[in-house]
Design a protein that fits this description.
It is elongated and about 70 Å long. Helix content is about 35%, strand content about 15%. It has a 6-stranded mixed sheet, with helices on both faces. It has about 250 residues and is α/β, with parallel strands linked by helices. α2 runs antiparallel to α3. β4, α5 and β5 form a beta-alpha-beta unit.
Amino acid sequence: MKTFILLIVLAVATLYSCDNSTSASPEVSNICLVDISGSIDNSNLVFYLENIQKSIIPFLNEKNSLVLLAIDNGSQTAAVPLFEVDMSNLQFENPADPMTARKKLGEQRRKKYLQDISESFISETMKNIEKRKAYAKKTDIFGSLKQINRYAKNRTNVIIFSDMINYSEESNMEKIINSKISPLKSIEKMPIVKGNNSIQIYVCTGDNTNMGITAYNDLEIFWRTYFSQNEFNLIDYTSSDLKMKATP
């Protein structure tokens, strides 16, 4: 899990560094798809949100955005963000400040703003999750992937916090796993969502010790294959339990 957090920090921090190096640097979108369905217990959900709070929010700069979308039964029909901030719409440097101190003061305001939203992030997001209880019966991961293009920018990081078991009208992976059949055998029947080789994917499954290592490994192989076939760049796929880590 520390490896996953480090990867996210490095990814966002590197983009932060690059974005500050030139006025022509690209805008970066960080899209978190968070599984809030009934299969995710509260401790895992808080764990997901703490990762975002500690590993992404502090590194946002004036060309970054962050949006959280729910993975549930309303992933397509009610795709309202759980949390959203677009730093490009905010101004931290004040023309009234002395020229020699303008950047420094602007940076101080940026950090203060991020500190403020970070402190209320988990409580406010949990309130929005509570409002979506009616959608918690199913897990539409494919539906969430279809929302990415609405928020994509020049560079796009997608961080998926989920056990990665899709359970929707289109695809019931839970049924496939329970029947001891590899999900990979059903990959051609799954909904197609294209990434066009421009989207970086990070997957954090959380603590899934009840799933069993065979099911965990089968799911990882399925999603690695799916993302590759559909032109997504999968950077990392990990669990909070290192014993569950499948061989790449």
